[in-house]
Design a protein that fits this description.
about 250 residues; mainly alpha
């Protein structure tokens, strides 16, 4: 039930976000690691079993944990306990947390998204919601929500597109009929532009929450240009993370 346990989970299961948190000031790390560990637990719940019912039960357990945060339920869990502290101490919106969990029900089943709108909602509830929660625990106000969620959506689109080859290898159809990877990448770049136009509303103290998107623009541009399996070199990754963490510009 420690921050260290959450950090270890993120390091093993979400190395990109782990690097982003390590690049953040120590005070921010103690708030971001529990949130990212929670996101990891929810994201991987549909993939640790072949039984859809069991996966649904795992997600429902997390929905119950979030809903009952004020009661102190599941405090002994290594992630739920620190998450409860964040929810209470930072008044995190339960509806955003619940939507993040509920959206992962799509990962349980093999049906493709019903249409473009469903995919967009999935990216909003998962990626945009997560980045907004990260910003909230660092003190973001409501005036920054639109910009942060737009950047979070773009980041979710970039990560989703990077996962497309693996999803296809698992027999999934990640993109709805009529939607191409290039179209999604271009929309992600539009969201990124919108976020940048409004970034004056984001205070410096919130910047560590946006470090998770340090690869976003590069990945989206690769896909928009026709690259099937986007990815950065180790040097490119490190350089972009260092640049964003030092300058605060994204």
């Amino acid at each position: 039930m420690t921050i260290e346990a959450c950090a270890e989970l993120v390091q093993r299961g979400d190395p990109d976000r782990f690097l982003a948190v390590i690049a953040a000031p120590p005070a921010a790390r103690a708030r971001l690691f529990p949130l990212y560990a929670f996101n990891l637990e929810v994201a991987r719940a549909p993939w640790v079993t072949q039984e859809a019912l069991i996966a649904e039960m795992r997600l429902q357990w997390w929905r119950d944990v979030v809903e009952n945060a004020a009661s102190g339920a599941a405090r002994a869990h290594e992630v739920a306990g620190p998450l409860h502290e964040l929810i209470r101490s930072h008044s995190l919106p339960i509806d955003v947390l619940d939507a993040l969990i509920a959206a992962r029900r799509w990962d349980v089943h093999r049906e493709p998204h019903a249409g473009e709108g469903d995919l967009h909602a999935y990216l909003d509830d998962t990626g945009a919601g997560l980045m907004w929660l990260a910003a909230r625990v660092l003190g973001a106000g409501d005036e920054a929500e639109a910009a942060i969620r737009a950047f979070g959506w773009a980041t979710a689109a970039a990560n989703f597109l990077r996962a497309v080859p693996d999803l296809q290898a698992r027999g999934r159809q990640p993109l709805p009929v009529g939607v191409t990877a290039q179209q999604l990448a271009r929309l992600g770049l539009e969201k990124l532009t919108l976020a940048r136009k409004a970034r004056k509303a984001i205070s410096r103290q919130v910047a560590p929450a946006l470090l998770a998107g340090w690869q976003t623009e590069a990945l989206l541009r690769q896909v928009a240009a026709g690259q099937i399996a986007p990815g950065l070199s180790e040097f490119g990754m490190r350089w972009r993370l260092l640049q964003q963490s030092m300058t605060g510009r994204w």
